[in-house]
Amino acid sequence: MVVWTHYEPYVPPVLGPPSEMTAREARLAYEEAMNSKSSRIGMLEAFAAINCAPFGADSESVDGFGRWLVDNVAPDPTEPRRLADHWYSVVFDTGLWVGDLIIGENPKLNWRLQAGGRSHISFQKPVIGGYESDPRYSVDPDSYVAALAHRGIAGRPVKASPIWEYVVTSAAD
Predict the structure, then answer these.
(1) Which contacts qualify for 18-24: CB closer than 8 Å, 24 or more apart?
(2) Alpha-carbon distance 113 to 21, whole Å?
(3) Which residues touch 135 (CB under 8 Å, ≥6 apart)?
């Protein structure tokens, strides 16, 4: 049973899919995400602690949290293919944490607001960029974690290294 005591879900300043936001709204949402990143990661760490889930910057802790997430994420009771409401916030917080882990592995990388047009899957979302080999390339930790959580509610297996392998691979340039 997941304990939600003291976990305050993230409420973005603009609601809706980033691809449907105006450029101004997307910039506001991005800036708020970056400004709240430290507190959101702190919230995630406290949430992990109260639920006895591993949490840390080493591969064992990162993957332990990933497996805990997959094992504990819950579907929406009325729409079983969607996550239950609070889990979207946990996914968001986890995406911020994973993004910072990627940057920790390769400090040349950075957070940025994805441009590139509405057809880009991560359009107007916070992504990790700064790859010297291809300046247009980016990774989207939030989407990766969301896909992992959806595997959990679908009961589909995950790799033994559900997050750390993604971190190390994404940090490579």
Answers:
(1) 18/123, 18/124, 18/125, 19/118, 19/123, 19/124, 21/124, 23/124
(2) 13
(3) 129
pLDDT digits (tens, 9 = 90+) for 49-102: 999 999 999 999 999 999 999 999 999 999 999 999 999 999 999 999 999 999
Stated length of the chain: 173
C-alpha 95/C-alpha 141 separation (Å) is: 5
The CA-atom distances, in angstroms, between 75 and each of 45, 72, 169 are 22, 10, 29
Amino acid letter at 62?
Answer: V
Question: Environment class of residue 29 by beta-carbon count within 10 Å: exposed (0-12), middle (13-18) or buried (19+)?
Answer: buried
Cβ(43)–Cβ(7) below 8 Å: yes
